Protein: Lactate utilization protein A
Organism: Granulosicoccus antarcticus IMCC3135
Amino acid sequence: MTMDHSDKPRVGLFVTCLVDAMRPNIGFASLKLLEQAGCIVEVPQAQTCCGQPAYNSGDDATTKAIAQQLIEAFESYDYVVVPSGSCASMIRTHYGALFVDDPVWAARQQALSAKTWEILSFLSDVMAMQIEQVRYQGTATYHDSCSGLRDLGVHDQPRQLLENVEGLSMKPLKDDDVCCGFGGTFCVKYPDISNAIVSEKTDAIANTGADTLLAGDLGCLMNMAGKLSREGRDIKAFHTVEVLAGMADGAGIIGSDK
């Protein structure tokens, strides 16, 4: 029997460099959630970086070449979904500046940018997904990553999705909309300032009394989880999709299973 998938949106999952290299579980959790939401999901093997490191370093020529490669790899899909507000914002918000003098590529870029979504926003705003029969036993607090919050308006969506996770209670985080100090190349260029910012963030996280930190960007999570680990704080960190997919097992990001 052949199933009719004609009414299901076809999604190209852009995994991101960090997820692929450091935490593939986030990619598998994203795939699981998208399929549960009713999507046909493919992961184009031609995908590489979104170009953000080059863009933030002022290398527009390299960024444009990367963007053209990404557009070619993903433009056939109904949607492009990204488990990172930072990378999703690069494609959706910043690609336009690269093609202002190139009308042919500008049209292709605009079409791709318009159908690119951060995953938690996509699951909530586009697919109206309801989380069911998922359990996470713990108390968590949530950090809003800068690009997802400021560029894409991702704030209520993760909190609404997490409301239906059985066993999970949420604690508000003071200054949850303040940067964690990562900022991509910022933490490399200004390590002392970055460390001062993340120190204030981990103090705020610890003061909530939560045993788990959640967010929607692996770069921010690695920065905060690394600092929590160096400070000897017993707080696990997960990407939100790992909890929503029922795949938040073990010690979490940067933690070690004992």
About this structure: The first strand starts at residue 10 and ends at 13. Residues 191-207 form the longest helix (17 residues). The two ends are 47 Å apart (CA to CA). The chain has two domains: 10-124, 133-245.
